Amino acid sequence: MEDRVFKRALITGISxxxxxxxxxxxxxxxxxxxxxxxxxxxxxxxxxxxxQVENRICTHECDLLDFSSVLxxxxxxxxxxxxxxxxxxxxxxxxxxxxxxxQNNVMGTANLFEAIRSAELNPIVQLCSTSEVYGQVNTEDIxxxxxxxxxxxxxxxxSKSTQDxxxxxxxxxxxxxxxRTRMFAYFNPRRSDLFSSSFARQIxxxxxGKKKELVHGNLNSVRTMIDVRDAMRAYWDxxxxxxxxxxxxxxxxxxxTVGEFLEALKNLAQTEIPTRLDEALLRPGDVTLQIPDSSxxxxxxxxxxxxxxxxxxxxxxxxxxxxxxxx
Length: 327
Prior knowledge:
CATH class of the largest domain: Alpha Beta
Largest sheet: 7 strands, parallel
Radius of gyration: 19 Å
CATH architecture of the largest domain: 3-Layer(aba) Sandwich
Shape: globular
Oligomer: single chain
Strand content: 15-25%
Distance between the termini: 47 Å
CATH topology of the largest domain: Rossmann fold
CATH superfamily of the largest domain: NAD(P)-binding Rossmann-like Domain
Number of strands: 13
Strand order of the largest sheet: 3-2-1-4-5-6-10
Structural class: alpha/beta
């Protein structure tokens, strides 16, 4: 495999839960690469998320729904690689504000692609899609390959499916160098809305005496988990080695039910953790079976997981123990 060489990277959503880990990976492992990032003026989490790299990156205020600001940012930064991570990514919230999620995710992506064309740039673009595009799969589709039909089961999944299709169309019609990746479930301490982070945060609050019980939704869903640090490293490997126009599943090797994960966390708790089902946390259209076949991505990139399930769980819980004072 021949490495591609990059001088300037642009991360949309750099101050977000995933983008900040990606920025850390690039800064720590590829110091020769300038790292630029798009942030929103109303972002409230960016300062904390980017604390480890804030002096080694350059951020740009830009709204992906404002074409002129996207175009100006691209002209200013002239990136040779773009990681498009920015999205409304809360599946459950998408049922409450579906039009906002669809508008943001679809038009933000379309504006980015059109701005690349208008600026007459030719960067490699990693389009961050998700396993949610597959929807509720049949058991015969397990493990899920890239050929599995898209059956999006939520407004969020519809928006990501549309992003995915836009990526293919702009590669085929306009020859943009777009690589689509579909990430399966991952541990990310900086995303409090994920079930794994929510459980860890609530356990830390109960340990600190700030909460009496842990509330949860559906515990029977099956997920294959990956550490966010491995996931962001996979995004870098994607732009280094993957084929333009193609799509790649990325996922971990630990398959577990949500309930089994909760029990693993409770076993690490420093006190008893009472739990209760909160029906408000149940989704109108749930996706309960997500087990990936990532063999194509592994074959092309040579990527392997670095962090074990146990290491990821400890990392997640310890993060929230450190930040529990903020709640």
